[in-house]
Amino acid sequence: MCLILVLFISACSSTQFAYNRAAWFAQWQIEQLVDLNDDQQSRLEQRLELLHSWHRREELPRYHALILQVGNLLENGVTEPGYLKLSDQMEDLWLRLLNRSLDELVLLLPSLSDEQVAELLASMSDKNDEFYRKWIVIPEEELIERRRERVFDSLEQWTGDITQAQRERVVEWAENAPDVYTLWYNQRLKRHEAFAQLLAERKTADVKSGLRALTVVDESRLQAWELRRLEDNRRRANALMIWLGQNLTPQQRDHLLEELAEIAEDVHQLQSQG
Predict the structure, then answer these.
(1) What is the pTM for the complete model shown?
(2) How many CB atoms lie within 10 A of CB 164?
(3) Is there a contact between 178 and 236 (Cβ–Cβ < 8 Å)?
(4) Sign of the dihedral defined by the CA atoms of residues 153, 123, 205, 190, in that order
(5) How far is it, in rounded angstroms, from Cα 165 to Cα 177?
(6) Which of 21-30, 133-142, 227-236 is least confident?
């Protein structure tokens, strides 16, 4: 997941610096989960460089176009259809990167020893435990505060000072958003069990298909109440984002457009470096 986040153009102070080191950072993240031998490290580095080159060549033009579309939406007025269209396009970009990542990284798993598999699964269990402590066993008041502060931090980074009306709308969302963290945690446990089985059969199984099934939640396998909760969460989150987009002050809109213009220029320059 860190690989996906790093390769996706993020709002950082130096987009080009971060992007040009994405392959190194992804390798470092993977090696935090399992110790690789020299041959595995070399192969991983090669596959990540191929992935990074593909992303620069094929995907950055799509990112650049999407950033320009976001700017046009802000300038012309945020609408629900416009926002949902861009949201779908962003999800498509993520899925393209996910699928290509599996193509490049799936070759590593069959080479893992039994000791490395045990280490990898233990590391993933630690990540699940961390998620549990952070999002499941905390008081409801703290959960609401974390939701609220995440949105406040993002708003301040992208638009500057937040208005009172915006604060009140975010608080309303944070207090009424459904609890999806328990659902996500249960899904993490199920995927961990399935991943352990896939690793046990890594020498003979169709690892790529198995990984793809684990990386995207199959909503057809969810219970009715789980689907309702996910849909309610999406509906409320989309409504919040649309409302915020429609209620930016002129100063906030200008600030956001300037940020987007800088990132668009960075992406354009990154394309030319390929």
Answers:
(1) 0.85
(2) 7
(3) yes
(4) negative
(5) 18
(6) 21-30
